[in-house]
From TrEMBL:
SUPFAM superfamilies: Thiamin diphosphate-binding fold (THDP-binding) (SSF52518), TK C-terminal domain-like (SSF52922)
Molecular function GO terms recorded: oxidoreductase activity, acting on the aldehyde or oxo group of donors, disulfide as acceptor
InterPro entries: DH_E1, THDP-binding, Transketo_C/PFOR_II, Transketolase-like_Pyr-bd, Transketolase_C
Cofactor: thiamine diphosphate
Domain (Transketolase-like pyrimidine-binding) ranges: 413-607
Keywords: Oxidoreductase, Thiamine pyrophosphate
Classification via SMART domains: Transket_pyr
Lineage: superkingdom: Bacteria
Species for this entry: candidate division GN15 bacterium
Name this polypeptide is given: Transketolase-like pyrimidine-binding domain-containing protein
Length: 764
């Protein structure tokens, strides 16, 4: 129903007015709420609807570029906001304007968000109705439907986690108390997404204090709920989980008494720790899905009428009037007051509009700053009470390491040992560091607690033994196995970040990151920008990548497609080629405030040399971090040809350099170490000083890293110093075939590098 029509209907109430109820008298039929509290709730509902009207007006005037309404959801929104604590985290979607307002967001906030003003909390980064307010425990919202449910489940687990957050955290002591309830609201269409199903599963499995409130208006744009679930009820697939503590409830979100009673019941149940709650809440849709939709094109007129006459605001107003809580005149006066205030604020916002600049937007994509990362590291180190000398002697006695020496004093080692040592240091530094993923633990199931049996077994510690002995030493709350569920792994990592920890989730192979692509691209990597810099996501996603596994990798274990992940704003990518860089970069990654994809080449884990070229290196001192975006240059004095690469192909380039030197060709070799950011200065300098450049990557050419490197060279002054076209040696445009011949046919090799350099050198 159009809101002005609704207000006129209320003003013209024709029934007999009862005696007024005392303002502070708790009313049993309203779950103990007083008239004063109920009036405040109604005022918020009217405010949300008036803001929605203003957004429509701004759209017509050209000041607002997008509109999506909350009409029909205001009652259930204020019921939640009034019954939850202000430090209960809320994961909403784009229909929760009334919740935000009732929890404390201002009309000025909403006007700035409506026009995308740079002064808004989110700096105008998102379309309206996508806020984030850290001081009100409203987590930053996003449009990919249903995906916030997995963030909510991860947060509910992280909030109730038995390990406290340190005072050195980016959120000292943790964002939310351990008994906090995590509320996730979403539309019925969103519950068809895989993330929602996994979210409910995890909340049941861990018995977290989570509530999933499904606002069921019956329509996902133009798709009826009847085409999505049996009986049109999104809770039906989860009825079996009731055996394990899940409470399923049916709520009339158009009826104030039922809504208040059911919400109070749900909050009490979740807070008790008995299990999560799943609610199917019948709501209306007062207006089409968004400004670009017209539901009259596809909705039965009879159903349209049902939505109109069951408008929660209209019904609540009439119920309150009939029960003596408020009069029609009072409601009209509230509306007139809101109308005047919002009209004025809207005009003020438009008149003083502050546009977003390119620099503002670019500055909100990455929080990374090496100086800040070093300060974060120093802060944790200063607070650490660990005697590392004594600890490593103890580790040696337990059989974890072959020497009692500190890692930095052990001498040259393989990359696997360097990462294992660094993970020991990180988990020993603070309880804020958690590691989890498939197979990362030493033991699982009942073996976790059976120390006697553990002592007789080697333990798993990762499929490549990189996390060996971490669980054995630090316990199952610090290093643990997860289900084979990449979405779930990263969803849990998100929750720990929001609570204040710095997790180290592992995705076993880059090839299998795909199921988690959306949460990584649309949620994790966008957090800093879409929240206007109010929230960060400091996690290190460790993963193996690439081929050269003696032919065993093939299609499903050889992906080196870093270009796919480089194309995600907000995600940093490190690709170490040796022990020294792996240890130094991993510490920097952990101390950074951005998500980092830390790519570890399986081919390099245990190699002591590459075709005779020594690879083992010492690792840096505990307090030495390696900055991102700073390349390492080999043979910098050589200028015949420059070879730019990273990861496993760096070692091939070094071998190729030795062969070429014997042929009288002196090659400079640049190891980028990180591909996001790239060391553009080193790339350009190499092009200028060498004149001939070969770029070598395991990535394929289309959309790959090599093309990006080449464009850095050719896109500026370096182009005029070139003596030959930039030559690219990449994986062929195919998945890697099986066997040693498959690796050799599909990927760069030392021989191919030598041949490519010779062609560059001799032809030009």
């Amino acid at each position: 129903m159009e809101v002005l029509t609704l207000i006129n209907k209320v003003r013209g109430f024709e029934g007999k007015l009862p005696a007024k109820v005392k303002e502070n008298q708790p009313l049993e039929q309203y779950s103990g709420k007083t008239p004063a509290e109920l009036k405040r709730m109604l005022r918020t509902m009217l405010t949300a609807r008036r803001v929605e009207r203003e957004e429509k007006l701004l759209l017509r005037k050209g000041y607002n570029r997008f509109f999506i309404g909350c009409g029909g959801k205001e009652l259930i929104d204020v019921a939640w906001a009034d019954n939850l604590r202000k430090n209960d985290p809320f994961f909403g979607y784009y229909r929760n304007k009334a919740f935000d307002l009732h929890r404390g967001s201002t009309l000025w906030d909403k006007m700035l968000e409506a026009i995308g003003d740079a002064r808004a909390h989110n700096k105008g980064m998102q379309i309206p109705a996508h806020p984030g307010y850290p001081d009100m425990a409203v987590l930053p919202q996003a449009s990919p439907t249903g995906s916030h449910a997995i963030e909510a489940s991860g947060t509910a687990e992280a909030v109730g986690y038995p390990i406290p957050v340190s005072m050195q955290s980016h959120i000292p002591g943790g964002a939310f108390p351990q008994d906090a309830i995590t509320l996730c609201s979403l539309g019925e269409g969103s519950t068809s997404e895989a993330e929602f199903a996994r979210a409910v599963f995890y909340s049941v499995f861990f018995k977290t204090k989570a509530i999933y409130a499904i606002y069921n208006c019956g329509w996902a744009i133009s798709v009826s709920v009847e085409e999505q679930f049996p009986e049109g009820d999104p809770t039906t697939p989860y009825e079996g989980f009731q055996r394990f503590g899940l409470k399923i409830m049916q709520v009339d979100g158009t009826d104030v008494k039922d809504s208040l009673a059911k919400v109070a019941e749900a909050v009490e149940y979740a807070r008790s720790g008995k299990g999560p709650v799943l609610l199917n809440i019948r709501t209306t849709r007062e207006g089409s899905h968004s400004g670009s939709d017209d539901q009259s094109f596809y909705m039965d007129p009879v159903e349209q009428d049902w939505h109109t006459y069951n408008d929660c605001i209209l019904k609540t107003c009439n119920t309150f009037i009939e029960d003596g809580i408020i009069t029609p005149k009072e409601i009209g006066d509230i509306w007139d007051e809101l109308d005047k205030e919002i009209t004025a604020l809207s005009a003020k916002a438009v008149a003083s509009f502050q546009p977003k600049t390119t620099d503002l937007i670019k500055g909100l994509v990455y929080a990374y700053d090496f100086g800040k990362a070093k300060e974060t590291w120093k802060k944790f180190r200063a607070a650490s009470k660990v005697d590392r000398v004594a600890k490593y002697k103890e580790y040696h006695e337990k059989g974890y390491f072959t020497t009692p020496e500190l890692p930095e004093h052990v001498g040259p080692m393989t990359m696997r040992f360097a990462i294992n040592y660094t993970l020991f240091d990180l988990l020993g530094l603070t309880d804020d560091a958690l590691m989890f993923g498939e197979d990362v633990a030493d033991f699982s199931g009942h073996m976790i607690e059976d120390r006697e049996k553990q002592a007789k077994l080697k333990g798993k510690g990762g499929v490549f033994l990189v996390s060996k002995n971490l669980q054995r030493e630090f316990g199952n709350h610090r290093c643990f196995n997860t289900p084979l569920d990449e979405i779930g792994i990263l969803g849990r990592a998100v929750g720990h970040c929001y609570q204040g920890r710095r997790p180290l989730p592992e995705i076993q192979f880059l090839d299998y990151m795909s199921p988690a692509y959306q949460i990584l691209k649309d949620k994790i990597a966008t957090t800093y920008q879409r929240s206007g810099g109010l929230f960060t996501m400091p996690m290190v996603i460790r993963t193996t990548y690439g081929g050269y596994k003696q032919g065993a990798g093939a299609f499903w274990h050889s992906e080196g497609n870093l270009g796919t992940w480089m194309n995600i704003p907000g995600l940093l990518i490190a690709v170490p080629s040796n022990a020294y860089d792996a240890a130094g970069l991993l510490k920097t990654a952990w101390a950074s405030d951005d998500p980092v994809l830390f790519c570890e080449s399986v081919a390099l884990y245990n190699r002591r040399d590459w075709e005779g070229v020594p690879m083992e290196t010492p690792i840096p001192d505990i307090d030495e971090l390696i900055p991102f975006g700073v390349a390492k240059v080999y043979n910098e004095e050589h200028t015949d040809v420059g070879i730019i690469t990273y990861g496993a192909t760096l070692q091939m380039a070094r071998k190729a350099g030795e062969i070429l030197k014997e042929k009288g060709i002196h090659a400079r070799i640049v190891d980028l170490r990180t591909v996001k950011p790239m060391d553009e200065e080193a790339i350009i300098r190499t092009a200028k000083e060498c004149g001939k450049v070969l770029v070598v990557t395991e990535d394929r050419f289309p959309g790959g890293a090599a093309a990006t490197i080449a464009s850095i060279i050719t896109g500026g002054e370096a182009l005029f110093h070139l003596e030959a076209p930039v030559k690219l040696l990449t994986a062929i445009d195919a998945r890697v075939a099986y066997g040693m011949d498959g690796d050799a046919a599909c990927l760069p090799t030392t021989d191919k590098i030598v041949a490519a350099v010779e062609e560059l050198h001799d032809k030009y």
